[in-house]
Amino acid sequence: MSDLESFIPSEESEGFDPAAFERFKENVKKGAAADAKAKKQEGKQKKKEDKLVQILLRFIKDQKKKGVLFLIARLLEENIPPLFVLSIVTLGMEDVRNEIAAVRAEEHKELTEAGKLQPPDDQEALEMKLALPDSFANIALPLEIKGEVDAWIKGIFDAGSANAPLVLERGLTDKGAIKQVLIDCSANVMSDYFEEREGLPSMAYDGYYNFCALVMKKLFTQLKKQVQDQKQLAETGERNIDS
Asked: What's the mean pLDDT when you consider all of the chain?
């Protein structure tokens, strides 16, 4: 049993084990430190990664749904980057997304000014638009709901793009398949979101799962292309230097 699983409340308990949560926090921080080393982060960049970890830990501590907590535990046990985990679990949580966006915008600005990141052309930006599940095809969803889902998907694509090599490395099985826990967690979050809002259509879990599977398939296809393009660009630059 993981430390996260040990502090998730049982049906009989009223709270979680603070000691287990502290152990879990340390494990998450160690994982983030390893990610920072893998990406050769130092100074301000490392501090921003720490901020994302703190947002994630606060979200976990406040989360009441045990099903989502177990899935978050599994994602973190797979060493999925905290930013990508947050992007999946924050559907409908504009305040949390705004915190994440502020951290990411600051980092993006510093990297761009340092010449380490070029603003992407519109044609190069990850394309994330997808139709809502077929079950909703004949139902007029409120614009607010459509906007929330669009923002959620965009956040997932942005987070994946920001950590493309690590997300690809840790989000795929040895056989190159997308890890099921990514789809399961996304589908659970989406299902909870629709069930908690009055007047919205209900749908079988398979509908949410199939939709989220398409989201992840499109994301990982484009992340592979992004990493390959970056690799080719680096190789071209090296050849130009040598010539």
From this structure: 75
